[in-house]
Structure formats: structure tokens, C-alpha cells
Design a protein that fits this description.
This protein is α+β, with helices and mostly antiparallel strands. It contains 7 helices and 24 strands. It has 2 domains: 44-129, Sandwich (Immunoglobulin-like), CATH 2.60.40; 137-424, 4-Layer Sandwich (Purple Acid Phosphatase, chain A, domain 2), CATH 3.60.21.10. β9 (114-119) and β10 form a beta hairpin. The structure holds 2-acetamido-2-deoxy-beta-D-glucopyranose (3 copies) and fe (ii) ion. One 2-acetamido-2-deoxy-beta-D-glucopyranose is lined by residues 386-387, 389-390.
Length: 436
Amino acid sequence: MPYLLLLLSFLLRLRPHDASVDFNRQPPRPLVYTYHDAPLSHPQQVHVSLVGNNYMKVSWVTDETDVPSTVDYGKTPGIYDSSATGEYTTYSYFFYSSGKIHHVTIGPLDPATTYYYRCGGSGPEFNFRTPPATFPIEFVVVGDLGQTEWTRSTLEHINASNYDVLLLPGDLSYADTHQPLWDSFGRLVEPYASRRPWMVTQGNHEQEMIPLIYPKGFKAYNARWPMPHEESGSDSNLYYSFDIVGTHIIMLGSYADFKTGSDQYKWLANDLAKIDRSRTPWVLVLLHAPWYNSNTAHQGEGESMRVAMEEMLYNSSVDMVFAGHVHAYERFTRVYDNNADPCGPIYITIGDGGNREGLAMKYKEPSPSISLYREASFGHGRLRIMNGTHAHWLWHRNDDSAVLVADDVWLEALSSSPSCSQKIQPKLKSTQRDEL
Ligand SMILES: *[C@@H]1O[C@H](CO)[C@@H](O)[C@H](O)[C@H]1NC(C)=O
Ligand SMILES: *[C@@H]1O[C@H](CO)[C@@H](O)[C@H](O)[C@H]1NC(C)=O
Ligand SMILES: *[C@@H]1O[C@H](CO)[C@@H](O)[C@H](O)[C@H]1NC(C)=O
Ligand SMILES: [Fe+2]
């Protein structure tokens, strides 16, 4: 019987990949499997994430179960004058049992400060830098990472210049039910994710749903990558929001129910209504399956979510919407309901982190007029928000042998646009506006 279930899970996990064989992709590069070759009590897969104002969550895994969930930290290497204890979890999936997965929230922390820390009282020292208190702030945005030689190249490019927070719109490990690959992924990203906060949302590869056995899915994802959903009034780790330096960031769940009246829909309406543009002039949204996409890959997969939620984002003057899923880069103009609209969000597909499926090379022709730049290459994006009104978006290609230059554009916050910011004032109804 267990073998039958394994066979079933194997067949199920092949399905999404079969769906992608009909487009031509740049040859995938081999999987990189990353080992833990230190003592069992030593931390592995260390990563940090923002949780509330001035706090950071430190997450790691130990194979040994008597390691305490404690983080010692301070501002000087080797001197830990603060300590915090958190919690741990474990999970099993068919024959796999996870190590002890520790989550410890530390703080309050000073902004723009390097902290040195040690996990569980043994093993090497790590360090991270907290985000600044004021503009400018720089985000790295990259989706569909996986764990191949392409991934490694992307991570090296990301690390080569400074940034504050990494935002990931889904598809992390590509474990696809093979749980040891979650551990391997955690080890691959540790040198980067232990240095800067990584804020993620889920993609289809995080689902790992098996009918009847794991009907809700997301077992590994929720155990390993808990995000601050309770702090933003969300009951689900699949959608949440947070504020950082004048920016309100909303992480949506393409694989959680989003229909009108669903929990996610109601949570989003409530979250948008609470935004105070004088405190957070910028609003960004991340989700996995793109609402706008002129690549032939994954056409229409984000459409029902767009129909359900686009008007809410438009009414709240969201500045940018980032998606992954399509393994390529594409930037749209400001769009609302399939038309260019100066008060709509800029849509960007950034699913080009480097996973084993390769690139999505085929585009619809001719290019729709709302699509301004599209290219199937691996890379990452950077959004540098200079102040309350101006930001600079730049797409960085990993492989610079191609002739095209990387994409780069300045944008202005919708909250500072006199004609668009009217929508943000909830009290200024359209009838009143007509009278003006
Ligand atoms: C990332 O960059 C920092 C700062 O330049 C450097 O110290 C560190 O070794 C780099 N990490 C990796 C894994 O390359
Ligand atoms: C968006 O705003 C328009 C105009 O004020 C309003 O009619 C509509 O109901 C709003 N939609 C949503 C989903 O809030
Ligand atoms: C915001 O940044 C832009 C770009 O650096 C600059 O031109 C503008 O003057 C700045 N605005 C304010 C109010 O500082
Ligand atoms: Fe995906």
C-alpha cells in the first residue's frame, strides 16, 4: 500500500512538468545538491525574515533533537549580549521525517545595523544587517529559484551588490514532494538568506498536495518558511502583508482561495483599507501566477485571480505587482483591465531565478502594446525606493553574452500623482469628484 501511494505521488508531481514540455526552453542546468558536512548539532539552512517592527525571525534546522531553540546575538563578533528562545516544529511526509526546525524571534533591533548571531549554542557565527529606518531602501525581487547551477549564478549576482530585503514571488526549492530537496535548498541559500531577510510567498511547487493524504498541501513550506501572517491579521501563511521603510508589501496566495467572499479576498480588502499613504506612500504586491503575461507559457493561469482581485488593487492605487511562474522577464506599462492606464500598477514577471525546468522562450507575436520589455534570460530585479515619490527599477541579467541591455526604468509613486491619488481618499466619492 505505501508503495502505491508513492507511485501516486510520483505520477501527480509529474503533471505540472508535462504541461510545460510544449515550449522551447534554454537548456536546463544540472541540479546542485548541497550537503551538511558539519556535526549534527550544528545549525543548517539558516535564514532570517522580518517579523513586526524591528524584529527578525531566525530559522534553522538541526538533525540532533536536543539542541535548544535559542539564538545568542550582539553587535560585535563573538560577543553575544542578548539571547532569545523561540519554538520548534517537525513534520513528516510519507517516509521522510524532518529535522528539528527552529524559529526564534529576536529584537528589538536597531536599524541599518549588523548583528552577529549563533544558533542553538553551537556551530559557526552568522551575521545579518537590518533594513534602514528611512529611505532609500533596496529590494531584490526574484522568483522560481530552484537549485541548479543557474540558481547559484543568480544568487552570486544578487550577493555581488548590496541590498536590504529579498522578495520572492513563489517557487522556492522545486522539491516537488521529494523532501530531502527542501533541506538541500535551505543549505544552498543559507550563505545569502542568513545575511538579509528573505520574504516569500508560495508558488505551485510549494503545494505538494496529495489527495486524501495531504489534502491541504504546503506541509514543508509552512513548517520551514513561516511568514508574519498573524501580525497582519491573516489566518494563513499563504497570504500576509508587512511594512518596511515607507513601503506596504502585500504577499498574495495564487494557490489559496481568492474568490469574492473567500478568506483571502476579505483579508485583502481589509488590509488595503488600512493602508495609510502618509506613512507608506508605496504599495507593492507579489503573487505567483502572473495576471499579465505575453509569454506562451502558463497563459491564462492567473486570469481568474485577476478577475477577482484586480479592481481592489486598482482602487487602492497599488504601485507595482510582481509575479513569477513564467521563467522569463517581462515588464508591462501601468495597466488596468487589459488596457494601459496611468493609475494602474506596473506589472512585472520575474520568474527567472534559475530552476531546473529552464527558460520560457516563446512569446506571443506581435507583442501586445502594454508589454514594454520581454526577454527569456535568467536574472533578478532590484527596486531601489529613493524617497516617498521616486523609485528606480532595474532588471539584471545573469548571462551578459546577449546583446540586449538589461532593463531599467524610473517610476513615480501613484500616491504623489494628483490625478491618481484621488482614488486613495476613501471619503472622496466619485459623485463628489464630479462636482469639483
Ligand atoms: C556575499 O557578499 C559578502 C559581502 O561582499 C561576502 O562577504 C560573502 O562572502 C558573499 N557570500 C558568498 C556566498 O559569496
Ligand atoms: C472600486 O471603485 C469604484 C469607484 O469608486 C467602485 O464603484 C467599486 O465598487 C470599487 N470596487 C471595489 C472592488 O472596491
Ligand atoms: C526623490 O528622489 C528623486 C530621485 O533621486 C529626486 O529627483 C527627487 O528630488 C527626490 N524628492 C525629494 C522630495 O527628495
Ligand atoms: Fe510556478
